[in-house]
Design a protein that fits this description.
Length: 104
């Protein structure tokens, strides 16, 4: 994943509605639905609405979407941290290689 990929993901996350996001489910007689919601001072805001189908659990999907509000930024931060470690290791290996090449 490139730095540009990570920047695009971070920008999308920054533009999304602030969290926390929660999943909710309603079971009316027809068309059961799951929702992703957030709370603001003026009340709850619907982020997404998913309709249940015989092949999917929309509440599980809604929970996944709600968790992504925190999971995506955390994963981007972890990728950046690991990339820094790899860069530091590569720099160290290059220095060791250069010293051994020079006979130090």
């Amino acid at each position: 994943m490139t730095d540009e990929d990570l920047k695009i993901i971070e920008e999308r996350a920054a533009k999304a509605t602030a969290g926390p996001w929660t999943a909710s489910h309603r079971e009316p007689k027809r068309n059961p639905r799951s929702f992703v919601l957030t709370s603001e001072p003026r009340g709850r805001i619907q982020i997404a609405c998913l309709w249940d189908s015989p092949n999917a659990s929309c509440l599980d999907d809604a929970a996944f979407i709600a968790a992504s509000r925190y999971d995506v930024p955390a994963l981007v931060a972890e990728v950046r941290r690991l990339q820094r470690i790899i860069d530091e290791d590569n720099t160290l290996v290059a220095k060791i290689h250069a010293r051994s090449f020079l006979g130090e």
